[in-house]
Amino acid sequence: MPNDAPTPLQKAAKFEARDLTRTYGHGKRLTTAVDRVSFTIRDREIVSLVGQSGCGKTVLAKMLLRLETPSSGVLDFDGRPIGEVKDAREHWRKVQAVFQDPFAAFNQFFTIRAQLKSSFRLFKEKPSEAEMNDRVDQALLAVNIKPKEIEGKYPFELSGGQMQRMLLARIFILKPQVLIADEPTSMVDACSRAGILDYLMKLKEELQMTIVFVTHDIGLAYYVSDSIFIMHKGEIVEQGPPDQVIQSPTSEVTKQLLEDIPQVNREWIRRGEPGPAPLKQTA
Q: Which of 223, 195, 234, 275 lies closest to 22, judged by CA?
């Protein structure tokens, strides 16, 4: 679990929310996706939004990305209202995402290289063609892909694990301050999953970024996070450091998430619990 100095209390707030709400529809058809949540996400923290499908975690993540607009409440980024800057591209230069389905994030009719180079459109000053190609190559190498392996290839010619690494290569190009990772390992096998997590940690260390994980996997959240937010029916029902949330849960939702872990994977829950005294050696 990350434990970088300075401590979280010394870090500046990246996101702050107070009574943040997102609703859809009107009258009898009103649906509340995010219901009056309040939280702080600090600079260079790893925070996990944990909950079952439909709990509101993805809608909350989209509000952090400015892909959804709050219905009410306050959401600040770097001390300013998130919608204060009219041009959303200003926000997207600082806050980026990797999504659950990497194929949906790429156009199937354009080559991988062309789409990675299109990332530079977010920059205020576009680099030269040679510099763009060089930075794309460096980003590919950062996620262990040789540039020639994707030369002339389209998204449908790559595996799910390779495509997820293409999303991460895009993050290496853009170098945002915040990364929203929405279930980034759910569509890949166990080997690819471990690799993707390693690359995410590499991103955090090299770019000193804040990462917000969106996941249903409370075990993953426990091991990678500085803070965990448990969501249920649009509310944050519990939040705090991983050891506090997992070892001493107060919400029935958290307890149920822990109960749902398969028996074979429960050993990690015991981390930090006092064990039996060691047997004394006899002569």
A: 234
Chain centroid to CA 54: 17
Nearest to 152 by CA among 105, 102, 112: 112
**DSSP string across the chain:** ---PSSPGGGSPEEEEEEEEEEEES-GGG-EEEEEEEEEEEETT-EEEEE--TTSSHHHHHHHHTTSS--SEEEEEETTEETTSSS-HHHHHTTEEEE-S-GGGGS-TTS-HHHHHHGGGGGSSSPPPHHHHHHHHHHHHHHTT--HHHHTT--GGGS-HHHHHHHHHHHHHHH--SEEEEESTTTTS-HHHHHHHHHHHHHHHHHHT-EEEEEES-HHHHHHH-SEEEEEETTEEEEEE-HHHHHHS--SHHHHHHHHTS-GGGGGGGGTTS--PPPPPP--
CA dist., res. 110 & res. 107, Å (int): 6
> For residue range 8-60, what is the model confidence (pLDDT) as tens digits?
456 889 999 999 999 999 888 999 999 999 999 999 999 999 999 999 999 99
Establish if 122 belongs to a structural domain: yes
150: in domain? yes
Residue corresponding to tokens 């509101």: 56
Q: What is the largest CA-CA distance in the chain?
A: 79
How many separate domains does the chain show? 1
Q: Determine the structural domain holding residue 146 and report its residue range.
A: 107-175
Classify residue 27: in a domain, yes or no.
no
Beta-strand pair 210-215/72-77: unpaired
Q: How confident is the model at residue 105 (pLDDT cuts 50, 70, 90)?
A: confident
